[in-house]
Amino acid sequence: MKKLLLVFTLTSILFGETINIAVATNVSYAIKDLIKEFNKEHPQIKVRVTLGSSGKLTAQIKNGAPYHLFMSANMDYPNALFNEGKATLKPVVYAKGSLAILSSKDLDFSKGVDLVKDVKRIAVASPKTAPYGKASVEAMKNAKVYDKSKLIYGESISQTVSFTIAAADIGFVAKSALYSPKMKRFQNKWVEVDPKLYTPISQGVVLLDKEAKPFYDFILSSKAKAIFRDFGYITE
């Protein structure tokens, strides 16, 4: 038995271990930096990432997808998983996201959300599966500028960014997307949406399997919070 245990331990050291995490697409811009920092302390753990809208990832988890951890764009989906017995720990907030209006066109961004009145095509993430899409619709309705006929829906917030650049006049996107190196050319072509217009986007992480506990602990650490702040998130 001791020899078997020794062989197993040596194998784990040599080949490491892999954890599978489901990540809301708004975090796609920060996840590489987060994993890089995590691997400084845990070089033996490989983190495999699946990106998608929070709603679709939740559906996959309910259907048995082998994820060890889920980083959602809100708290509703993680809470639902916890209440159904799919999680080992109660979900907690790891960061708060913000909305921004982006365009590839030369517009008067000082108008803020009122830009909606001046354009014909508006890209938003699907409010049915993407919390940022739900917040976008809420912001437009509260500002009394909502016009469903103008909307072009992206499956996720990253697809919405693509639609904004290629097919729409403006788009409601996650502010974190604007901190990607690829978005530097748009640094003067966006404006933050007044946070009073939508419910705060509290993003939740939930541990689905204890194997991912080291990464779960890291996501809640001060080092991870510093990275989130670098990508435009709010941490407390």
Keywords:
236 residues, alpha/beta, D-Maltodextrin-Binding Protein, domain 2, 2 domains, 5-stranded mixed beta sheet, 10 strands, 34% helix, disordered N terminus
Task: Please give a structural write-up.
Helices cover 34% and strands 22% of the residues. It is an alpha/beta fold and 236 residues long. Strands 2-1-3-10-4 form a five-stranded mixed β-sheet, with helices on both faces. Strand 6, helix 5 and strand 7 form a beta-alpha-beta unit. Helix 2 (31-41) packs antiparallel against helix 8. The N and C termini lie far apart (48 Å).
Short description:
Helices cover 34% and strands 22% of the residues. The chain is α/β, with parallel strands linked by helices. The chain folds into 2 domains: 2-96 and 201-230, Periplasmic binding protein-like II (D-Maltodextrin-Binding Protein, domain 2), CATH 3.40.190.10; 97-197, D-Maltodextrin-Binding Protein, domain 2.
List the helices and strands and how they pair.
Blueprint: H1 2-15, E1 17-24, H2 31-41, E2 45-52, H3 54-62, E3 69-71, H4 76-83, E4 92-97, E5 99-102, E6 122-125, H5 131-142, E7 151-154, H6 157-166, E8 170-174, E9 190-192, E10 201-207, H7 213-219, H8 222-230
Parallel strand pairs: 1-2, 1-3, 6-7, 6-8
Antiparallel strand pairs: 3-10, 4-10, 5-8, 5-9
Helix pairs in contact: 2-8
